[in-house]
Design brief:
- The chain has 92 residues and is mostly helical.
- It folds into two domains: 35 residues, no CATH class; 33 residues.
- 38% of the residues lie in helices and 9% in strands.
- The protein is built from two helices and two strands; from the N terminus they run αββα.
- It has a two-stranded antiparallel ribbon.
- The N and C termini lie far apart (96 Å).
- Keywords: Membrane, Transmembrane, Transmembrane helix.
- It comes from Triplophysa rosa (Cave loach).
- This is MHC class I protein.
């Protein structure tokens, strides 16, 4: 897409009004003194994969932390009833 100012560069001017300047400054527009944003397709092509990679990384880290927290439990130090079933029960 060609900008209108590129087709008619002598028609479009930038007018600068500054408190410190005695009179207005006029600058003709050309490609050397006009800065434009890069094509948004390039930005999207960089940002979207980075966001997806961060989401996958966060999911993997979350899964690892969840598995570790759900893992082995501390063993009980008390004997269970089944281990003591061959011994007579004390009478109350």
């Amino acid at each position: 897409m060609v900008m209108e100012w590129k087709k008619n560069p002598d028609v479009y001017r930038c007018v600068i009004q500054h408190v410190g300047a005695e009179k207005e400054i006029f600058v003709l527009l050309n490609e050397n003194n006009v800065r434009t944003n890069p094509d948004s397709g390039v930005i999207i092509g960089i940002v979207v994969p980075c966001v997806v990679a961060l989401a996958v990384l966060a999911a993997v880290i979350g899964l690892v932390v969840w598995k570790k927290s759900k893992g082995y439990m501390k063993a009980s130090t008390q004997d269970s009833d089944s281990e003591n079933s061959d011994q007579p029960q004390p009478k109350a």
